[in-house]
Amino acid sequence: MESYLLDWANLLLRWVHVITAIAWVGSSFYFVFLDSSLTPPQDEELKRQGATGELWAVHGGGFYHPVKFAVKPPQLPPHLHWFFWESYSTWISGFALFSVSYIWNASAYLVDKSRMDWSPGAAVAVALSFFVVFWMLYDAICQIFGRRKNGDAIVGALTLVLVCAAAWLACHWFAGRAAFLLVGAMIATSMSANVFFWIIPGQKKVIAAIKAGQPVDPVHGWRGKQRSVHNTYFTLPVLFAMLSNHYSFTYTHPQNWLVLIAMMFAGAAIRQFFVLRHGWKLGRNRHPLPYALVGVAVIAATIFALRPAPVAMVSIAEGGRTEPAAPVSYAEVQKVLEQRCYMCHGAAMQMKNVRLDSPEQLKAHAQGVYQQAVVTRTMPMNNATGITEAERALLGRWFQAGAPVQ
Prior knowledge:
The protein has 406 residues and is mostly helical. It has 16 helices and 6 strands.
């Protein structure tokens, strides 16, 4: 029953997380596009009011005319829409999902004893510290270097180094799938922290100054935009990390930390293309196609590097002839499953409601066994039971021969 309820919690939290993340990413992408596409206002009245940019757009059968006031509008409207609940609800639902999926069963999902033999409690504590330490270091980098000459480039370079260090540590300390997700969640936490600690408080200070009739410090607008731009570059790397847990060939690679860094870098480079293309259309910058090409090239190189090695056909040489390998019997498969799988999918426990210790049950789950143990190689979890390559190959031959259970 516990496993069943956890599965439902996982499903519902994942659903909520995806919905709120779509809302947050959508609003983030829209405002980056808006900032990049604004042109100086043509209307003299808007100029007198202090407007710094405008945009005309058509959508859904209507025309829209957003106008930007960089420091303050001529007067505050009675209703202002705040974009922060999208961020907060995404982080809350994501952390709840991480707790249900990884913290609740840390010994199975977070700990890989072949990498780091520590207790589940210690693994959880270190995992959570990634969120806090990364935010503190990233925030310090922004505050120390952000307003210096070439500050954006310095902050970008140092943040890249920080992400690389975190990816290396996570992939050497935690199970591969958990490591990828942890790095993504770590960056996503900083994205939400940017909103919570800087963007929203800065906007509140601006509004308070306007209401009090005091001069508005432009640093709040500058800092808010800086952190918003950082968030948009973080988005595609985070999305890759979140999606990667469905594709074990990425996080099970011996150099999985390099795979994670390469794909995150490619995502950021491709995002740069989309950010700059609006400015290129207005003649503000050169064509950003090289950024997209760099991102695509990195992805292509990663695909090439991860290509599977050719698998020699198992055969038997007899009298100078090569014959196909003998069919795999149910008894041979049962012996492998008894050693490697029954402790989680047998009489005592049925993880994910899967039981394999009878011919009927094995036949019903044959496709899943083949996919999880042979194709994606995600089972046994973190290879805790030490299944060998020969045993995986045996399961593959058994399934391809029709999964006989007689």
